[in-house]
Design a protein that fits this description.
With about 350 residues, the protein is of the alpha/beta class. The chain folds into 2 domains: about 230 residues, Periplasmic binding protein-like II (D-Maltodextrin-Binding Protein, domain 2); about 90 residues, 3-Layer(aba) Sandwich (D-Maltodextrin-Binding Protein, domain 2), CATH 3.40.190.10. The chain is built from 16 helices and 10 strands. It has a 5-stranded mixed β-sheet. It has a 5-stranded mixed β-sheet with strand order 7-6-8-5-9, sandwiched between helices. Helix 8 links the parallel strand 6 and strand 7. The N terminus is likely disordered.
């Protein structure tokens, strides 16, 4: 285990040995676990549900782990997995209209479109720490403040990497609209753009970030595992609003299964890497395990703690003009959130 991850797990009161000792139950520690454990179990025959996720996103690790370890079945769910490759708006529309019962995605990608009123409720975070900012070791770019006047490559000018980096640049005194230049490339060409000198830094996530560091020698200058973001989720579970209102035990079962999957992945990164490996044939399972150690799958909040995280991110997005300045962060977070274990 890396020293930084060991520190994180000690800080949160979790260790791999301690988590493994929980055996098959493997729920989260703290209030979220207690609430999940005490929530009514789903009764009757297995409930059929549809769950949308993106197999190419390592940060969705809770889904394949929950599937492989039988957590869905243990929570009395019969799950149809939909491999989603469309836009966030289309995914939220699918969940809102019942074409999918639930889906997993990145919080900074979901909050803005949820202003449109999609009938989707966010019930839990599934992990944190998947976004990184990279530069070349000889570029002179060592900190976020060094990005002033520089060119930054991202995979999507309206995407989560640009949103997050814009937020933290503002907090470091750099105007992301006038003091940096954003350039968009297909994600697999970001490393080439760096080699050609077309950009000075880039923002992306694993497994691409890991590959660029390993094969291109790039170095990490920032991630969402520092400056307070190490205690926040970056990926979330959203469930159909009608399902939450009309069948809360099923919504709770879905949420519990994903929390169990996330916690198991944190406790067993080597096994989780092997489980995920078929979705990343170009990556070695050992490298996937290394990536999983670097994120915080053990941070998977539900309940009031999670609602407060949503409000925090709304304020962040207001800061950079992604969300309207008049949005009441607490009110909006309460509107899009559901405590399915209450």
């Amino acid at each position: 285990m890396s020293s930084s991850n060991q520190h994180h797990m000690m800080k949160t009161g979790l260790t791999r040995r301690g988590l493994a000792g929980l055996g098959a139950s493997l729920l989260l520690g703290g209030q979220a676990a207690l609430a999940a454990d005490e929530a009514p179990l789903l009764q009757g025959p297995p409930k059929k549900i549809t769950l949308a996720w993106m197999p190419t996103a390592l940060c969705h690790i809770a889904v394949p782990v929950a599937k492989a370890k039988g957590f869905f079945e243990k929570n009395n769910l019969d799950v149809d997995f939909v491999n989603w490759a469309g836009s966030t708006d289309m995914l939220l529309q699918a969940i809102s209209t019942g074409k999918a019962d639930a889906g997993v995605g990145m919080i900074l990608r979901w909050l803005k479109p949820m202003e449109a009123g999609f009938d989707v409720k966010l019930t839990a975070g599934t992990h944190g720490g998947c976004m990184q900012v990279l530069s070349a070791p000889d570029s002179g770019v060592k900190t976020l403040a060094d990005l002033k006047g520089k060119r930054i490559g991202v995979g999507d000018l309206a995407g989560v990497d640009k949103n997050f980096l814009s937020i933290v640049l503002v907090k470091k005194g750099v105007d992301p609209t006038s003091e940096v230049e954003w350039r968009q490339y297909p994600p697999d060409l970001l490393g080439i753009a760096m080699k050609k000198g077309e950009i000075d830094a880039l923002s992306t996530s694993d497994p691409l970030a890991f590959t660029l560091k390993r094969d291109n020698g790039l170095v990490q200058i920032f991630s969402n595992l520092q400056d307070g973001y190490e205690n926040l989720s970056c990926c979330v579970l959203g469930i159909s609003g009608s399902l939450v209102r009309n069948d809360r035990p099923t919504a709770a079962a879905i949420t519990r299964s994903l929390l169990q999957g996330a916690t198991y992945a944190a406790a067993h990164p080597e096994e989780a890497g092997e489980i995920y490996a078929p979705n990343a044939p170009k990556q070695r399972p050992g490298d996937l395990s290394t990536m999983l150690v670097s994120v915080t799958s053990d941070h998977a909040p539900a309940g009031e703690a999670f609602r407060k995280e949503l409000a925090f991110y709304v304020e962040d997005l207001k800061r950079v003009g992604v969300m309207k300045p008049g949005v009441d962060a607490n009110r909006f977070a309460t509107k899009i959130f559901a405590d399915v274990f209450a």
